[in-house]
Design brief:
This protein has 300 residues and is α/β, with parallel strands linked by helices. Helix 3 packs antiparallel against helix 5 and helix 6 crosses helix 7. The chain starts with a helix and ends in a 13-residue tail after the last strand.
C-alpha cells in the first residue's frame, strides 16, 4: 500500500477524542487570555494532537473535562503542561549566530567601558527556553570581559514555563549540543568534568553571571532597572499583532538610551514602536534617543 493510501486511511479514522469548534474556541481563548498565544482555527488539528497526549496521561475522556481542569485556580502545574504542549522549546547554542557576533564585536566593548566607569550593565534573555541563549550571552560577556565578576554586569534569563526554567538553571545538555558551540568557546563554556552519559554542563563561571526566573511576558514585570541588551527571539511569532506591538513598546521603555534589542529572524517590528528603533544589523535594533516613553507603566 502506498504512503498516500496510508495517509488517506489514517485521515478517515475517527478521532480518539471529540474536539468540536466550541472546544477549540475555549482552549484558544484561554491560551490568548493567559499567555497571549494566538491560536488560529488553522491550528485546530495541531492543538488536538498535542493536547490529546495530556488527556491520555490524565485518563480524561473529553476536552470539556480538560478545560474544566485548567479553569481551576489551583491547577498551575497543569498550566505548565498545557503551555509546554502548545509552544515549542526547540533551541540550540548560538542560534542565529549573527546576534552574538554583533553583541561581541559592537555592543559589549562599549558596555564594558560603562561597567568600568562604575555603572551597572544589564542584559536580558526574555524567553530563554532551556537556557542556551543565556549561556551564549554569558560566554560573550566572558570573552570580552573575563574580569566581569569584579564589575556590576548581570544577565537575567526568564521564561514562562517553570519546568523549562528549572532545566535552564541546571545547565546540563546532551552531548549532541556540543557541536553547536564554536571551538573557540568550548573550554570556557563547558565544565571539565564529563558525565557518564556524555552530557555537557555549563561552566560555573558563566552560571554566576545569570539569574533565572519565571516570567509571563504579557503579564506584570517586576523589573524597573534599565537593560542595555534585550534578546526576545522566536516568541513574538506566537502573539497576535496587537500583543506584539505592546511587547515591543514595553521593551522600548525598559531599554537604556541606545540600548539594543535582538528579535527572531522571522519577526519584524511593527506599529508605532518601529519608529522608536533603528535597524543596525540583521534583526538587531537600537533604541533611538530623544523620545518619550511609549507606555505609562502605572496605567497597566
Amino acid at each position: 500500500m502506498t504512503s498516500t493510501a496510508h495517509q488517506t486511511m489514517a485521515s478517515l479514522q475517527p478521532a480518539e477524542f471529540a474536539f468540536s469548534d466550541a472546544d477549540f474556541g475555549q482552549i484558544a481563548s484561554l491560551a490568548q487570555e493567559k499567555y497571549g498565544l494566538n491560536l488560529q482555527s488553522s491550528k485546530k488539528a495541531l492543538v488536538y494532537s498535542r493536547l490529546a497526549k495530556r488527556l491520555r496521561q490524565l485518563k480524561m475522556s473529553t476536552f470539556a473535562d480538560y478545560y474544566a481542569l485548567l479553569s481551576q485556580p489551583q491547577e498551575q502545574n497543569e498550566h505548565s503542561h498545557f503551555l509546554s504542549a502548545l509552544t515549542t522549546n526547540v533551541t540550540h547554542f548560538f542560534r542565529e549566530e549573527h546576534h552574538f557576533s554583533y553583541l561581541q564585536n559592537t555592543v559589549m566593548p562599549k558596555l564594558v567601558t560603562k561597567a568600568k566607569a562604575g555603572q551597572s550593565v544589564r542584559l536580558w534573555s526574555s524567553a530563554c527556553s532551556s537556557g542556551q541563549e543565556a549561556y551564549c550571552m554569558a560566554a560573550i560577556v566572558n570573552a570580552v570581559c573575563p574580569e566581569f565578576a569584579s564589575l556590576d554586569i548581570k544577565i537575567l534569563a526568564t521564561d514562562i514555563d517553570p519546568k523549562i526554567v528549572a532545566q535552564a538553571k541546571q545547565g546540563i545538555y546532551p552531548d549532541t549540543q556540543r557541536t553547536a558551540i564554536p571551538a573557540a568557546f568550548r573550554d570556557t563554556m563547558i565544565a571539565a568534568n564529563t558525565a557518564s552519559d556524555g552530557s555537557i554542563t555549563m561552566h560555573r563561571k558563566l552560571k554566576s553571571l545569570i539569574s533565572f526566573a519565571e516570567l509571563n511576558l504579557i503579564g506584570a514585570w517586576p523589573m524597573r532597572k534599565e537593560f542595555d541588551v534585550i534578546f526576545c527571539r522566536n516568541v513574538a511569532i506566537y502573539f497576535d499583532p496587537a500583543t506584539q506591538h505592546r511587547l515591543w513598546a514595553r521593551f522600548h521603555d525598559l531599554l537604556a538610551p541606545d540600548g539594543h534589542m535582538m528579535i527572531g529572524h522571522s519577526e519584524r517590528l511593527g506599529g508605532p514602536t518601529a519608529k522608536k528603533f533603528r535597524n543596525v544589523d540583521i534583526t538587531t535594533y537600537q533604541k533611538s534617543t530623544g523620545h518619550a516613553p511609549l507606555l505609562d507603566e502605572k496605567k497597566e
